[in-house]
Design goal:
Blueprint (H helix, E strand, L loop, with lengths): L1 H12 L1 H40 L4 E5 L21 E5 L2 E7 L7 E7 L5 H4 L16 E5 H7 L6 E6 L2 E11 L13 E4 L1 H8 L8 E5 L5 H11 L3 E5 L13 H28 L1
Parallel strand pairs: 4-8, 5-7
Antiparallel strand pairs: 1-9, 1-10, 2-9, 3-4, 5-8, 6-7
Length: 279
Amino acid sequence: MVILRYIIKSIFEKRVEAFLLILSVVAASTLVFTSLQVSESMRKLNAESASVEIGNSDIIIEPKDDPNALMAVDPDLLSAHSQSFEYVLAPFRCHVLYEPTVEDQEYFSVWGVSLKEIPKFAELSFTGTKPEDLAEDEVIISAHAAERLGFSEGDSIELNVHAHPGTYRIAGLATSSGVFANEMYVPVMIMNKDRLDDIFETGGIPNMLYLKLVQPSEKAEMIETLAALYPDADVTASEDSSLAGNSGSDPTISFLIVSLFVIMVSAFIIYTSYRVIMS
């Protein structure tokens, strides 16, 4: 009781130090809880961003990051296991250049895929006309990218595809969902796969395979089996693939570093204020 009265008396006599002590405790506690909430929110955001690239697939087969590896993944090798898959999405992935001026240019991340197949992999909806399929000179971009670049449905857009410049018609404007859900850094486009096959001379063979299993519990066994079939490719669970990784730095790391610094400063203020109050 005597100690408590002494502490209260010291607090009233040294109001500034007491205020700093209380403020430091509150700031440190707030930062701890805030950092935990921000970290959890960023983890969810990263998971949502990853879903743009991996859809609802279970397994992804992609060329190895090796200059000597083949840049094609033949889906015909899967024929013996066709009953194990709900779907096999076999797109050709690439980037094409949009260059209205020399100073103003950007790349689109392109999916060369059938419009009838991609809805199995991820949602695809439109703000206006819903194309049933794409002609070789037609593309789909998001309504967001169209607004930013000044295009409307039916407009023509000049693209340079693998050193093959050409004029394409915007056949539809997609909503910001599915493969178009995350265009923070690079806009997305869907093109006619046959057109890309001709330009890149692929012989119709895609450079990516996305697999959805009938029995997800068989994933580990199937990955092992497919890895033997595709020795020049990476066969991984979709959530473990390079596409699911975050290419940029995690902003929560910087936030946690700053939070740690502030907490340390707060702890120093708490310690010194306590010593002053109790002296």
